[in-house]
Amino acid sequence: MILTVTPNPSLDRTYEIPALDRGAVLRATADRVDPGGKGVNVSRALAAAGHRTLAVLPLGGPAGAALAALLNGEGIEVVGVPVAGQTRSNISVAEPDGTLTKINATGPELSADESEALLATVGERSAGAGWIACCGSLPRGLAPEWYAELVARAHAAGARIALDTSGPSLTAALRERPDVVKPNAEELAQAVGRPLATVGEAVKAAEELRARGARAVLASLGADGQLLVDEDGTHFGSAPVAAVRSNVGAGDASLAGFLAAGGTGRAALAAAVAHGAAAVQLPGSQLPTPRDLVPAAVMTTDDVPYDRLLREPVS
Model-level pTM? Predict the structure, then answer.
């Protein structure tokens, strides 16, 4: 069983439109409402692949109730921590060329008691979990050190932690040595405070995160593939993508595939790449099922293309 923690979940509505024209009345060609939040998406991807998962998240108001109902409908066990504020609702606008415009709400402010209740609930429900995946931004009311406290408590209980966050929250948590961190290229550049223009520069940034405490780094480089930097060295993986429809949840799907495949080594990296490549070809925040995956198309190697220029360099 893989337990996920999403401190700031959401309801995500996605509209597909022919083109985004500011100031005009736009008619959507399709729309959908999905559960949102990075940890939520990890649970959804795991459930879609037939793995047992439990989602711990703060829930408040009608939006929180709707979110729990949607997750239950996908076969996900939800452990909700009641909060006084309203669970947020986000909007995404997707264009045919893959351009995605997102409007993310702030979300509720959690009290000190609600913060502690969330930490305690994770501890109570983590028995038997193979991994605890802690994902996403922190809501108002939670200090940047909140994830660090969660990692410390989880390790004290013997659990393995995968952390997908950024900024001060990531920096603070590194000192507690999370078992794997999963930044994208932009988050990786932010963490080390310098631009990344090549795969080699991304590798050096990942190695720096390991030196600062991360036991392994799974880095998504967008269209350029993914890196896994751990105690055994550096591994690179990629897969062809016919057309990008939406990148919402693609990184979360990658983390789900990685953890479901054991969370270590080239086989887990290959699963991460397969899940990420499948996710970007699906609409909205839809997560891939096993029939969407093409494992044979995935390439992994220890011969890392250090000099390759990133198609989307981060400044």
Answer: 0.92
